[in-house]
Amino acid sequence: MDRITLGVDTFGDVMVDEKGRPLGEAASLRHVLEEGIVADQTGLDVFAVGEHHRDDYAISAPETLLAGLATRTQGIHLSSAVTVLSSDDPVRVYQRFATVDALSDGRAEVILGRGSFTESFPLFGYSLEDYEVLFEEKLGMWIELMKEQPVTWSGSTRPGLQDAQVYPRTDHEGGIPTWIGVGGSPQSVVRAAAHGLPLMLAIIGGEPQRFAPYVDLFHRAADQLGVARQRVGMHSHGHIAATDEQALEEYWPAYRAHNARLGAERGWPAMTKEHFLQEVEHGALYVGSPRTVAEKMVRNIRALDVQRFDFIYTAGQNLPSLRRQSVELYGSQVVPMVREMLADSERSGEDTAS
Amino acid sequence: MSGDSAGSSAPIRTLGILGAGKVGTVLARRALEAGYEVLISGSGDPAAIALITSVLAPGARAVRPEEAAREADAVILALPLGRFRELPVEALRGTLVIDAMNHWWETDGASEELGGPAASTSELVQEHLAGARVVKALNHMGYHDLDERALPAGDPDRLAIAIAGAPDDADRAARLIDALGFDPLVIGDLRSGVRLQPFAGAFGAATDREGLARIIEEFPRTERGREVLAALEPAALEPAAGGNGSMDA
């Protein structure tokens, strides 16, 4: 297979100091910038940042942060994860990413999604009732914008365009590389295939191999529609330390608090330690030593046959030092191990296949 | 077969699943594994879910909602709750209908009717589906657990699924839950289903029958329980305060 794309991802969780006091949003953003630089130095393929509009996350404008990173990094691709296109203007989003692309010499990427939080809708004057139509219409417009030709478009969620050229244009053929992020709705998977864009699966709970049929669905939908098969990626949460025990100990308190807060908002109970350990053992969490995390990644990369894996190295309020440690160990140890194991299994796969 | 009288006792062989999303496709797989014939529907034209069905629930037959409703011995509702008023009333008359729906803002929009403390959503569904035999079940367990953790009867690790509804209907649903790989726990009438909704302790619970029963009995003594019971029926708070463990909301 082609060389797998391996990245890291953060939603910019507001951080705390050694005494557990919040560092504030501005300081948290500066730390994320440093983490992006570390990710670049360790040779990672992608640094991706989420968009949220809540007090637990500092990043609301991914592309502004990415613009900062564009001027201080060399090779790493700079992506959103995800851009909540539904509550933004596709033309403005495209312009901003095209600007990042110019500053980074062609390293900007976008993952578009519906978003899994409500806050951006009232903030920008949109109604949650229009959740589906906003995304579908704006995604359709985005795909027109990617051609970087004069756009003619009309819809119900935004004034139409007539032969409008949008600037700046990028040097990319096919425009800004764009992925579609989905949670677990089969309909979303089929729609993504219909748009001819690669698919990013958010696998944040349960057994990852259960998503294999979704990958199959994505490819078969493309075949049925007569469009080219596209790549599939996955992103999942985790934390890396020298030992499994240390990683669990460092990760669990912040993860528990984070999960409890989301649960309280959505109506599910607080996660037990037992459930957490179950997720680490069999589920979607990659918490442990570099070897433990690498082995689990390889298992699931192969089970799902994905071409990209983004490691979400933060969940909840944690120390900047622990976040940085996770990025460093991922880039310097996990990624080389994953590449080696994949190459080995590829070779042995060839042997047994003959 | 869904005649008014025969429907209440006949064994379930054909299961209709309305909704081909995450939950609907997981339940279709479970039901196929348990040996049921499965009819699954999306919002209309079966062609729209043919591929999804063939990949995610091979063996299930994609049909129109009316056909699933008319031909199945029992029907599971796994569509977005906000669309319950589109359900075919006539085709479901006399049929056992298992309401596995919950209010989610992503699909329903923000709704006081469906998400407020006074919302007893399966009762709303029953009001719409006059003549159907509605029970609430399969809504409180996450779809990962439904997918991954079905076990044969008697397994010590078997998880429980609570059922709220009229006794005969709940018993019939209980046999289905058992066949799907979970221990059924009948908790009371349809209104007691508020104990299984989002923000109640049982919501998201993946535990055994005893543990689930305990969580559900706790409901009136929880903050959400007090809020819900006060909103539904202020007087209902008083017996609960005495801790008599009544399972009816």
Q: How would you characterize this protein structure?
A:
The complex is a heterodimer of chains A (354) and B (249). Chain A is of the alpha/beta class. Chain A has a single domain, classed as Luciferase-like domain (TIM Barrel). Helix content of chain A is 47%, strand content 16%. Chain A has eleven helices and twelve strands. Chain A has helices at residues 25-41, 62-70, 90-103, 120-123, 131-146, 186-195, 212-225, 244-266, 273-281, 290-304, 320-353, and strands at residues 5-10, 46-49, 77-80, 83-84, 108-113, 151-153, 161-164, 178-182, 199-202, 232-240, 286-288, 308-312. In chain A, a hairpin with a 7-residue loop joins strand 6 (151-153) and strand 7 (161-164). In chain A, helix 2 packs parallel to helix 3. The model of chain A has no long low-confidence stretch (mean pLDDT 95). Chain B has 249 residues and is an alpha/beta fold. Chain B has one domain (6-241): 3-Layer(aba) Sandwich (Rossmann fold). Chain B is 36% helix and 14% strand. Chain B has an eight-stranded mixed sheet, sandwiched between helices. The model of chain B is unreliable at 1-7 and 236-247 (pLDDT under 50). At the A-B interface, helix 6 and helix 7 of A face helix 2, helix 4 and helix 7 of B.
